[in-house]
Write a structure and sequence with these properties.
This protein has 167 residues and is mostly beta strands. The protein has 3 helices and 9 strands. Strands 1, 2, 3, 4, 5, 6, 7, 8 and 9 form a 9-stranded antiparallel sheet that branches. The relative contact order is 0.26. The model has no long low-confidence stretch (mean pLDDT 95). The structure holds a DNA duplex (12 and 12 nucleotides).
DNA sequence: AACAGGATGCAA
DNA sequence: TGCATCCTGTTT
């Protein structure tokens, strides 16, 4: 059962928490989401949307349930899902995936995740609610979730907005 | 522990 | 035009 718009139309930290254990489908690839991070807008210095709308960050202000793909350090793609009502900048970064399709490995890190799935900038702005091959469905019933500060950033490292599924 | 690789956006 | 950045693989 595909997650509906209301699931993403909530506070990004709540969505990031609830996405743990859900199943991501991307073409032939399927996997359980094991690690996420929440990013907000003006109140979050670590977010691309911190300084307002730019060509890159505009999607974060848009409709919840859409994909946000950006290039980091010039070579890796990172996959996010837009959350909160239109006009409220926020997104959830997908950092970890337990593959259900070969090679059944655990993808650790947003760059590796996108590289394996074949996600590129052409997958930016896709509506996961209306796409037939790129979406999120129910997965594990009640996974145990660990909450920690976000990693890989230098600002706002105090906010506990990283969510990891317990093994 | 340091760094290369190199798109993007901001300050200058 | 310069510099920092939501990363990763390779080399000290």
């Amino acid at each position: 059962m595909k997650l509906n718009r209301d699931f993403f139309n909530r506070n990004c930290a709540v969505v990031a928490h609830d996405l743990i254990g859900k199943k991501l489908v991307f073409g032939e690839h399927e996997g359980i989401i094991t690690e996420t991070e929440a990013y907000r807008g003006a109140d979050d210095p670590a977010s691309h949307a911190h300084r307002g709308i730019t060509a890159r960050s505009a999607i974060m202000f848009g409709q919840p349930g859409k994909s946000y793909v950006y290039i980091i350090y010039g070579m890796y793609y990172c996959l996010n899902i837009v959350t909160e009502p239109e006009g409220e900048a926020s997104a959830v970064l997908l950092r970890g995936l337990q593959l259900l399709t070969p090679p059944l490995t655990h993808l650790n890190g947003p760059g590796k995740l996108c590289r394996h799935l074949g996600i590129t900038k052409q997958h930016n702005g896709i509506d996961l609610l209306s796409d037939s091959s790129f979406y999120v469905t129910e997965g594990i019933e009640s996974p145990e979730v660990h909450i920690t500060p976000r990693i890989g950033i230098k600002k706002a490292i105090d906010k506990p907005w990283r969510f990891v599924m317990a093994l």
